């Protein structure tokens, strides 16, 4: 495939939703081009083609796909070994957890934004309750559903990567109560498709974005 025919992933360096599509693209060994934009000053061409004004977008010739879960399912259906179960009930359950991972990303973002300790604690409590459900569901063989890397794994890896960075830089580890989640995190973060899914200076950029906001977490 020539560079001109490759799918283009319109991205932002810090976006966890972009990252899940990058992980899926890398896992499937699909050639793609990545194009970073500023979300503070969205380019006109992006505003023109992005119905929700959000990244990621996947441009395939004249077609624009949006919503990371939809992009990932398209990539899954068109390339390589399936990353969702065949059985409709199991597939629907996996989709439920992918949807859940989007809420978890949003809560983690709110946690990094919280200005006061009281707000931070409320968000942390909410996150903890939700993660307890996840801890009950995940397997203990390294992946969400056993030994195979699935779309649920690629959807949670960005949250888990950020939780590790936050733990190392602030001492706040949002998965510290959950043994299976910790094991899952170690396994996912050791995979090449996850390691290569962010820019080289991701940790610095991520922490800088948190320090710039100057919220409660920045003082830890
Ligand atoms: N549900 C969307 C969420 C995407 C999303 O929230 N992207 C953020 C960056 S991480 C964004 O583009 N925000 C820009 C804006 O809302 O103006 C998905 O899964 O793709």
TrEMBL record:
Keywords: Transferase. It holds the Pfam family GST_N_2. The keyword Transferase applies. It catalyses: RX + glutathione = an S-substituted glutathione + a halide anion + H(+). Residues 5-83 form the GST N-terminal domain. GO terms for cellular component: cytoplasm. Residues 87-207 form the GST C-terminal domain. Its EC number is 2.5.1.18. It comes from the Bacteria. GO terms for molecular function: glutathione transferase activity. CDD domains: GST_C_family. This is glutathione transferase. It comes from Kangiella koreensis (strain DSM 16069 / JCM 12317 / KCTC 12182 / SW-125).
């Amino acid at each position: 495939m020539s560079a001109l025919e490759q799918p283009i992933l319109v991205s932002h360096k810090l976006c966890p939703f972009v990252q899940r599509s990058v992980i899926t693209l890398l896992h499937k060994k699909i050639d793609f081009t990545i194009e970073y934009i500023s979300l503070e000053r969205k380019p006109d061409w992006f505003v023109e083609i992005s119905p929700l004004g959000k990244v990621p977008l996947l441009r395939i010739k004249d077609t624009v796909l949006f919503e990371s879960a939809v992009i990932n399912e398209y990539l899954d259906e068109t390339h390589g070994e399936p990353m969702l179960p065949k059985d409709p009930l199991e597939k629907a359950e996996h989709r439920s957890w992918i949807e859940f991972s989007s809420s978890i990303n949003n809560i983690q973002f709110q946690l990094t934004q919280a200005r006061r300790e009281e707000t931070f604690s409320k968000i942390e409590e909410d996150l903890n309750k939700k993660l307890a459900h996840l801890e009950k569901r995940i397997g203990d063989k390294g992946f969400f559903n056993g030994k195979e890397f699935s779309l649920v794994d690629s959807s949670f890896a960005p949250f888990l990567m950020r939780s590790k960075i936050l733990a190392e830089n602030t001492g706040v580890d949002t998965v510290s109560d959950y043994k299976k989640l910790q094991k899952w995190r170690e396994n996912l973060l050791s995979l090449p498709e996850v390691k290569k899914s962010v820019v080289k200076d991701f940790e610095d950029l991520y922490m800088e974005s948190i320090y710039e906001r100057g919220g409660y977490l920045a003082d830890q």
